[in-house]
Amino acid sequence: MKTIWDKYAEVLVDYSVDVQKGDLVQIRGTSVYTKDLVKAVYKRVLERGGHPLVRTSIEDLSDTFIKLASDEQLDYVDPITKLEYEKVDKFISIGGPMNTKTMAHADMKKLARRGKATKALSELLMKRSAEGSAKWVIADVPTHALAQEAKMSFDEYSEFLFKSCYLDLDDPVAKLKELDEKQTKWANYLNNVKKLHIVGEKTDITFGVEGRKWISCSGLNNYPDGEVFTSPVEDDINGEIYFDFPQIYRGNEAQGVLLTIENGKIIKATAEKGEEFLNAMLDMDEGSRYIGEIAIGTNDEIQEITGNILFDEKIGGAIHMAAGASYPETGGKNVSGLHWDLIKNMKPTTHPASGSSPLQGAKENTGGKIYADGVLIYENGKMII
Question: What are the backbone angles phi and psi of residue 242, rounded to the nearest 5°?
Answer without folding.
Answer: -115, 135
